[in-house]
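Record now logged underneath.
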Amino acid sequence: MTKPYKFSKSIGFISLTILLSFVFLQSKSYSQEEIRRLTLQDAIEIARQQSPDALMAQHRFRADYWQYKSFQASYLPALTLYGYVPDFDRSVRTINTVDGSVFSAQTQNTFYAGLSVEQRIGPTGGTVSLNSNLTRLDNITDTGTFVQYSSSLLNLTYRQPIFQYNAFKWERRIEPMIYEEAKKKYLENMEQVSVTTTNYFFNLLLAQIEERIAGINQANYDTLYKIARGRYNLGNIAENELLQLELQYLRANSVVKEAQLTLDNQLFRFKSFLRIKDDISIVLTIPDDIIPFIVNSASAIEQAKYNSSEALSFSRQLIEAESQVAQAKQDGRFDAELFAVYGLTNNTQSIDMLTTNPLDQQQLRLGVTLPILDWGVARGKIKIAQSNQEIVRTTIEQDQIDFDQEVFLLVTRFNMQYDQVVIAAKADTVAQKGYVVTKARYLIGKITITDLNIAQSESDRSKSSYINTLRTYWRNYYDLRRLTLFDFENKQSIEVDHNELL
């Protein structure tokens, strides 16, 4: 958020003329009801707190945050308790004896439980685990229940892929970049909220001004029409001129109704976006309190490369393409996997005896896969991945050029826009004065109704043009902040405490 601007003398003096022309009408319209006056900064602050776009940006960041936390947690030791209590089985089974196989009815009840700790090893892609389990077997017969216990007291297991694609290693490079993108994207989304709020603000501001202008024009033409009727009765003006004034008066009445409808519509849209639910009337203040400053385009491009999520996304896409090439080179080629287990096990009829004289448990296995003939499948996948990598690299190079050009053009427009605001303000002041002079000359019969209509149209257009020029200035201002994530007025990066969003 920017700090409130100080009042600029050059533009403030000019816009004062605009504001004074509406003082009487405003006081008449709002004197009997409570009103809320909002500046552009007020509206932006409200939007950042409660607009749907701001809330969605916050929730998107939260989702990205917990995705990153889940990734980090996947590299921490995982403790797992497993088993089944009980596993009851009563069935007829085939039993092998010295004389051959016979059928025998058996009843068994098994209790099994185990505890395992597993740890991923990112740099190598291996997995190490430590586990222990206990099994109780109850053989139920007509003569009684015979109990046996079996336990793997402690097992250390290590599984290590060799010459295989290590997804863990690439995840450790890519996932932190995705999270950093999410943090920068949140800041950009909040600046986009400022841009969107600016649009709604100026839509409503222009509608309020045009509604006031319509009311003033209606009152003016009502007065002029009444005067013209008197002058017509005295024979000072022709009937054609009286009819033209009557037509302008009728049009002014129609414009008032259309302006009120437009105002109601824009007020609804403005309050809906800011989620303002009360019925207090809102009066917007013209945001002409501008302190001019010039932005260096080279500096803006440098800040955009350093701060924006777009630049970080370019780097991430290159790494992802590199990882796909590495995966294509290692998948389907010579593969090997080492599996090793060392532990202690025992089997007794009493649980107290499980730790007495346990037996060693050792396993060692080295699996090998070597394709002899694949008709070029693996080589084709490598070529595809390499081609895709070149496509990504070329696309990113062009996107970077386009991004830099977008920043450059925006800086150029922003640096020019302040002068446009000054010119539009002066033009509006001249048009207002011209209309006052033209109206006075018409009343004394020095000019025709056509000249008066032209002056009135120029006055209305100049006021709308001034407001739209201000709109363009503030849009460019917040667009520049969004693209660079840098506050050029205060010369500092735009930052936020992301912990407060969780």
About this structure: Residues 71 and 171 are 9 Å apart (CA to CA). Residues 1-32 have pLDDT under 50 and may be disordered. The chain has two domains: 32-68+172-316+390-496, 80-121+126-165+334-370.
